[in-house]
Design goal:
single chain; 156 residues; alpha+beta; OB fold (Dihydrolipoamide Acetyltransferase, E2P); 2 domains; 5-stranded mixed β-barrel; 4 helices; 45% helix; rod-shaped
Length: 156
């Protein structure tokens, strides 16, 4: 008889952890957790006894208070936070280019792709937003806000 109440309590606590850690918000896991804990208390009162019911209810409330205390501490969530600094910069190679530089597209520009200008590889954009095939010779038309605009060179 005790194993049913204990299984309901364990299921309720596990579902509460699932609600807080995996699926935050008032969702199915949180509702089933409270139903499971309530069912454990009801089962104990109804099938085991009045005194045992109060003990189980006290234990469940104490577990919920302890869980609430642990979850609301700020240090608990710090362990789950992503704590990295992003130090990369976007398209810094474009600062080495100048208008009139010539190069070749490494990928298809549709209208954005990659181009190589000597030893500098960077993201480039077609100046008129048309597609430019891979391997096409291009010329830098304009550089604004680290965005390199290119046009194909018409070799005749």
């Amino acid at each position: 008889m005790w194993w049913i109440a204990l299984a309901l309590i364990i299921a309720g606590i596990l579902l509460m952890f699932v609600e807080f850690l995996l699926v935050p918000g008032v969702g199915v896991a949180g509702i089933f957790s409270l139903i499971s804990l309530g069912a454990a208390c009801w089962y104990t009162f109804d099938y085991i006894g009045y005194n045992a019911g109060w003990w189980v209810t006290s234990v469940v409330l104490a577990l919920l208070l302890i869980l609430l205390f642990i979850i609301l501490r700020t240090k608990t969530w710090k362990k789950f936070e992503l704590d990295t600094d992003v130090t990369s910069q976007v398209n810094t190679a474009s600062s080495q280019l100048h208008e009139g530089d010539r190069g070749v597209t490494l990928t298809r520009l549709a209208p954005i792709g990659t181009g190589r200008f000597g030893t500098v590889c960077c993201e480039v954009k077609s100046s008129d937003s048309t597609m430019i095939a891979s391997g096409t010779e291009v010329e830098v038309v304009q550089i604004s806000d680290n965005q390199v605009l290119v046009k194909p060179i018409n070799i005749q």
